[in-house]
Structure formats: structure tokens, C-alpha cells
Design a protein that fits this description.
Layout lengths: L1 E4 L6 E4 L2 E4 L2 E4 L4 H6 L8 E8 L3 E7 L6 E7 L1 E8 L10 E7 L5 E4 L3 E7 L3 E8 L8 E3 L20 H4 L17 H5 L1
Antiparallel strand pairs: 1-2, 2-10, 3-4, 5-12, 6-11, 6-13, 7-10, 7-12, 8-9, 8-11
Length: 190
């Protein structure tokens, strides 16, 4: 498996080894030992599967009291996947990274705790599966405006289709007092 760093420390793209032959393919989508060697030590407790049509945008989401790390992959179609650093005090606060994930490229993205996540569908439809390190709690959800200018995500679509909840999302500044605080590993060693 190849591990590709992104602009956001801790957020990585994983490119698993795909074994192809005339029958099709085989790919190992998760192996706790190999992922731990890649720096992913989370215990995943919930798997989710969504299907969305072209132009749907889901996000940007996170949980506050029960934060979730996520491991995201696409099993049909193609998406543009976005991760935003929402940790107050982080050197990369409000920075984002985006990556194309598809059923054809088999790539995965790891979203650590302290980051918001979102995606938009680029193909006619897309099915996304992702692992979570804590259970979903609707009352604990943070929803950021997909087009918050303080973040400035350059989505590859215009006029996305949003859920009723995402239409009511708030800008990052409105969540300030509730956002997680950056834990600088260098300060912990001092």
C-alpha cells in the first residue's frame, strides 16, 4: 500500500495494491496491522454506505463531543472528497485538501479527528463506504457551509444539491467556541 501525504498533517491518501487478472481484481480494503504501520491506529466501530446522484454535495460535517476519524473509499462512480482542519490554534486551521476518489482508482482518504469532511459526486451516481472511529450522533453534529468563504473550498461543481440540514449549515466562525483545540505534539514533549 502506498501512503501519500496531503497538505494537512495527518490526512493521508492510501493507494492499496490491486491484484488484477482476466477474472477481475482483488484488493484488500482494510488491514489493521498495515494501516497501523501507515500511522492509522483508530479502532473503527461503524461502517457507513451512501449512494448519491451527480451534483449531490454532502458536508462539510464533523462531530463535536464524539469526534470521528474516518476512512473513506468509493465502490461505484467518482467523487471529489474534501477534508478541512477545524482545530483552533492549528497551523493549518481552516485549510482544506481535496482528492478524487473513484471505484477505478481504489484510493482511500483518512480523515483524522479534528477535521470536517465532505464530498460531491462527479459521476452519474456514486456509492461511498467509510469507516468511523465513533458512532454517529445526530445531536452532536457540526455542519459547516459548503461554500464558506473563510475556508474557500474550490468544489468542481456549481449549484450542488444539498440536504435540508446542509442548507441550514453555519459558517466556521459561528462554531468557534465549540471547535476542537489543536494539540501540538511538540508542546507535549516539552
Amino acid at each position: 500500500m502506498k501512503v501519500v501525504a496531503t497538505e494537512l498533517p495527518g490526512v493521508v491518501v492510501l493507494e492499496p495494491r490491486v491484484h488484477r487478472d482476466p477474472r477481475g481484481f482483488f484488493v484488500e480494503t482494510f488491514n489493521a496491522t498495515r494501516y497501523a504501520e501507515a500511522g492509522i491506529h483508530d479502532v473503527f466501530v461503524q461502517d457507513n454506505h451512501s449512494c448519491s446522484e451527480r451534483g449531490v454535495l454532502r458536508g462539510l460535517h464533523a462531530q463535536l463531543r464524539r469526534p470521528q476519524a474516518k476512512l473513506v473509499r468509493v465502490i461505484r462512480g467518482e467523487i471529489f472528497d474534501v477534508v478541512v482542519d477545524i482545530r483552533r490554534g492549528s497551523p493549518t486551521f481552516a485549510h482544506w485538501t481535496g482528492v478524487h476518489l473513484s471505484a477505478d482508482n481504489f484510493r482511500q482518504i483518512y480523515v483524522p479527528i479534528g477535521f470536517a469532511h465532505g464530498l460531491c459526486v462527479l459521476s452519474d451516481s456514486a456509492e461511498v463506504e467509510y469507516k468511523c472511529s465513533d458512532l454517529y450522533d445526530a445531536a452532536d453534529e457540526l455542519r459547516l457551509c459548503w461554500n464558506d468563504p473563510s475556508i474557500g473550498v474550490r468544489w468542481p461543481i456549481e449549484n450542488p444539491q444539498l440536504s435540508a440540514k446542509d442548507l441550514e449549515a453555519r459558517p466556521l466562525a459561528a462554531w468557534w467556541d465549540q471547535l476542537p483545540v489543536y494539540d501540538d505534539p511538540l508542546e507535549r514533549r516539552a
